[in-house]
Amino acid sequence: MKFLHNGHPGISAMKALARFYVWWPSIDDDLDMWVKRCSKCQENRPNVAELPVYSWSVPDEPWERVHVDFAGPFEGKYWLVLCDALSKWIEIKPMSTITTSRLCSELDTIFTSLGLPQIIVSDNGPQFASQEFHEYCRYNGIRHVKSSPYHPRTNGLAERLVRTFKTRMSASISDGLSLKKRLENFLFTYRITPRIDTGKSPAEILLGRQLRCLLDNIKPNPRMSLRFKQFQANIEHDKEIYFNPGETVFVRSRDNKSWKPATVARRTHRYSYLINTPIGVKKYHADQIRKRVIE
Questions:
Q1: Using an 8 Å Cβ cutoff, are 117 and 16 in contact?
Q2: Do residues 180 and 187 touch, judged by C-beta distance below 8 A?
Q3: d(CA 287, CA 280)
Q4: Which residues contact 187 (CB under 8 A, 6 or more apart)?
Q5: Does pLDDT of 153 surpass 70?
Q6: What would the pLDDT profile of 90-130 be if each residue is shown by its tens digit?
Q7: DSSP3 helix / strand / coil % (the chain, rounded to 5)
Q8: Angle in degrees, CA 159, 184, 142, rounded to 5
Q9: How far is CA 52 from CA 103, 153, 164, in A?
Q10: Cα distance between residue 89 and residue 157, in whole Å
Q11: Which of 44-53, 260-269, 285-294 has the highest mean pLDDT?
Q12: pLDDT tens profile 165-189
């Protein structure tokens, strides 16, 4: 339960993540009580009901339309918040200044990993309304849609994410972690938690796979167990057939009818050795060499 509450998600998010990995009797009641006993979650719980999100059409593909906004100043920084409209994958970048140049630079970093979206939705902040940002979108072939003035719900997806981000980050202040680690915990938990509306996590929808987390260790993985056993067997086999330089050994004769005494010169590869024989230095495979005990 402590791991499930990493990053201070709410009750619904904790239950969704838990059901992906584990079950025990009274799991719902236990998770309810865990969140209710978290004083920081209760102290930072929003008082108002969530505003309805402006009715956008559902994108056909992940990363087709992204919503962006700024949060802050919060904990001494401004925060660029970005959310994919379909998968709900989120990116959050701390910024000391929120100029248009810095905004474009941070977006470049994100788009380098995930690609360019077709549409960016933002409010009418000066960074987004500038000619520089207009040129940035035009150059990258991105359509920029700005919300209606004095009607922030047009960009409600980003607005709600900003609120969630502030709530959970405020709750994590007492965890004794650095700001960077608290942000990483929040992002990771958010990205791997299955959503109620899709039944899949943002990572599954955007990346096509669930990100591996600590709880994956409790799932049986016969294939991985077999690979580990094979790996261990190879290590033990290597130990058995390893020969040291100067070691006295037997080598198989070229006609494969007998074994001749010789001395190891050096190892040239995993299974290859140069051997000192009465007729000179010859190359042998480890299968052609065996231990020799001198009385």
A1: no
A2: no
A3: 20
A4: 7, 90, 91, 92
A5: no
A6: 999 999 999 999 999 999 999 999 999 999 999 889 999 99
A7: 40, 20, 35
A8: 50
A9: 27, 7, 15
A10: 12
A11: 260-269
A12: 888 988 888 888 999 999 999 999 9
Buried b (16+ CB within 10 A) or exposed e, 268-291: eeeeebebbeeeeeeebebebbee
Q: Encoding tokens for residue 233?
A: 């067997």
Structure tokens at 190: 């958010």
pTM of the full predicted structure? 0.65
Burial pattern 25-60, b for ≥16 Cβ within 10 A else e, equals eeeeeebeebbeebebbeebeeeeeeeeebebeebe
Run of H or E residues at 203: helix 202-207
Q: What are phi and psi of 228, to 5 degrees?
A: -65, -40
Q: How far is CA 10 from the centre of its chain?
A: 21
**For residue 222, what is the enclosing H or E element?**
helix 222-240
Tokens in use for 172? Answer: 């994590």
Task: Give 119's contacts (C-beta < 8 A, 6+ positions apart).
Answer: 64, 65, 66, 142, 143, 144, 145
Residues comprising the chain, all counted = 295
89 CB-contact burial (10 Å; exposed 0-12 / middle 13-18 / buried 19+): buried
* Dihedral-angle region of residue 45 (phi above 0 means left; psi in -120 to 50 means alpha; beta otherwise): beta
Are 51 and 151 contacting, i.e. CB atoms less than 8 angstroms apart? no
Q: Kindly state the tokens that stand for 77.
A: 């920084």
Task: Report yes or no: 37 and 131 within 8 Å, Cβ to Cβ.
Answer: no
Q: Of 115-119, 136-140, 228-232, 285-289, where does mean pLDDT reach its minimum?
A: 228-232
Do 35 and 14 form a contact (C-beta atoms < 8 A)? yes
Amino acid making up residue 282? K
Give whole-number Cα distances, 220 to 25, 217, 226, in Å. Answer: 21, 8, 12
